[in-house]
Specification:
The chain has about 475 residues and is α/β, with parallel strands linked by helices. The chain is built from 13 helices and 21 strands. α12 (about 350-365) links the parallel β15 and β16 (about 370-375). α8 (about 255-260) runs parallel beside α9 and α12 runs parallel beside α13 (about 390-410). Bound molecules: S-adenosyl-L-homocysteine (SAH), iron/sulfur cluster and FE3-S4 cluster. S-adenosyl-L-homocysteine (SAH) binds near residues 239 and 375.
Length: about 475
């Protein structure tokens, strides 16, 4: 692949100019309408998309739109889509159907689609065919062009014209566009984009392109800026953070990047996802062990407990190798919490394979696991393999889910009775007068408190485990 181009100036300034142009057009439209125009960005999918949405919202806000959560009310709606499993796509089509009928009543409503779904040619064909009311479609590789595309959409006066701008891949990374964070005290930070692994079931490499790492100095500068703005926790994002740095001129590993981030004063917690087991190095385990800030937590997707299926999945590790890595982590960091992703029903999976996955869940003792039914993705190698019987898959899925729940419920008990620090994230929606926060190990804790605690650290006595979370009492205040 060609060298990565870091364009922090030319392209950035072009797009910042477009933000100014949007402001002018918007002011005119608002004068006509006699009110402010609003925008809503609805996010599907993973942390990567969530972070992209913060950038998209940042641009819309800066350009003068009033930001709303409500896609039915907003003048401009943008869906940031996911295509990792078919049900993600179906949700988007469902929403689009509803918006199409709303647009019949209100033709000035503007609708756009971006994210992973739009990187699939078959999806774009379907949208062109059956969803003609969409104004703008763009992909994952050119979200930095969003100001320009919004401007073109606003000045387009042909209602039949759909603006479609989807790139196959890119080697461009544009730094420093505006961002509106969802949380004031924590933030995702992209350290790399794309994926080179081509697990045989997965569509991500096709829709997110080849792996490209950001330069360490750009990452550090972004985190320093975030910390100066009140952020105490960062989540470093990449599809496979353990292979960070491979395309860079500077010889740097993920572990070394962590060492440098650790030195940032004022930053309290460092998380990362996702770690691919095949690339998890001893150096990383060492850095985690010695660190005061890197959380004693690892999301380590296993996908299957059967070496035979892992091979067919092109995961490049065996059950034994995975367990070896887990044991090293537990030895170095005894209190570590572990979570994982599991796919049930990969082509050719038998009852015995599923039993092996369940036994691995018990052996590792996961604190939580996200269990998915295999979804056939067009264009991936697994799509042309012989698919499993649906009924059997459902049975295996239920059996594994039950094992996950039982294991997690048992495991979480090891924290009962301890005093630990919680970073408060939100007021609790279910229990009046309670807040919800996270331990450094990512486990959720509920305790009595109010909104004034959001974003602060509280010392909490962990009274009782409740399945996937703990109930506690604050011991450092009222
Ligand atoms: N890069 C990360 C995960 C990306 S997708 C990693 O390597 O782990 C998140 C999860 O979705 C995956 O871990 C996998 O469990 C699941 N997934 C991906 N493709 C899928 C498919 N075709 N069907 C069902 N689940 C899938
Ligand atoms: Fe998909 Fe595998 Fe890449 Fe993860 S590592 S994004 S599962 S191809
Ligand atoms: Fe979905 Fe794209 Fe993330 S397919 S899981 S939003 S990288």
């Amino acid at each position: 692949m060609d060298e990565i181009t870091y364009s922090s100036n030319e392209e950035l300034h072009k797009q910042l100019d477009y933000i100014e142009k949007i402001k002018e057009v918007l002011a005119e439209k608002e004068k006509e309408a006699g009110r402010k125009l609003s925008a809503s960005v609805i996010t599907f999918g993973c942390q990567m998309n969530a972070r992209d949405s913060e950038k998209l919202i940042g641009i819309l806000h800066k350009a003068g739109f009033e930001i709303k959560d409500d896609d039915e009310q907003a003048d401009f709606v943008l869906y940031n889509t996911c295509t990792v499993r078919d049900n993600a796509n179906q949700k988007v089509y469902g929403r689009l159907g509803l918006l199409g009928s709303l647009k019949k009543k209100n033709p000035s409503k503007m609708i756009a689609l971006c994210g992973c779904m739009t990187q699939e040619a078959t999806v774009v064909d379907k949208l062109k065919e059956s969803y003609r009311f969409i104004n703008l479609i763009f992909g994952t590789h050119n979200i930095f062009k969003f100001p320009e595309l919004v401007y073109l959409m606003l000045v387009n006066d042909d209602p039949k014209h759909m603006i479609i701008d989807v790139w196959k891949d890119t080697n461009l990374i544009v730094e420093d566009l505006p961002v509106d964070r969802k949380y004031s005290f924590k933030s995702g930070v992209n350290i790399m984009f794309g994926c080179n692994n081509f697990c045989s079931y997965c569509i991500v490499p096709y829709v997110r392109g080849r792996e490209r790492s950001r330069k360490p100095e750009d990452i550090i500068a972004e985190i320093e800026k975030l910390v100066a703005d009140g952020v105490v926790e960062v989540m470093l994002l990449g599809q496979n953070v353990n292979s960070y740095g491979k395309n860079l001129d500077e010889d740097i590993t993920f572990a070394e990047l962590l060492r440098r981030i650790e030195k940032i004063e004022g930053l309290k917690r460092i998380r990362f996802m996702t770690s691919h087991p095949k690339d998890l190095s001893d150096e990383l385990i060492e850095v985690m062990k010695d660190s005061k800030k890197i959380n004693p937590y690892m999301h380590l997707p296993v996908q299957s407990g059967s070496s035979r299926i892992l091979k067919a999945m092109n995961r490049n590790y065996t059950r034994e190798r995975y367990l070896e890595v887990v044991n090293k982590l537990k030895e170095a960091i005894p209190d570590i919490t572990l979570t994982t992703d599991i796919i049930v029903g990969f082509p050719g999976e038998t009852k015995e394979d599923a039993m092996e996955t369940a036994s691995l869940v018990k052996e590792v003792g996961y604190d939580n696991a996200f269990t998915f039914i295999y979804s056939k993705r067009t264009g991936t190698p697994a799509a042309s393999m012989v698919q499993c019987d649906e009924k059997e898959v459902k049975e295996n899925f239920n059996m594994i889910l039950e094992t996950v729940q039982e294991t997690a419920k048992e495991r979480i008990k090891r924290f009962e009775g301890r005093d630990m620090e919680v970073l408060v994230e939100d007021v609790n929606d279910h229990e009046e007068g309670f807040v919800t926060g996270r331990l450094a190990n990512n486990l959720l804790v509920h305790f009595k408190g109010d909104a004034s605690l959001i974003g602060t650290f509280c010392k909490v006595h962990l009274d009782q485990s409740k399945g996937f979370y703990l109930l506690g009492t604050r011991i450092d205040g009222n």
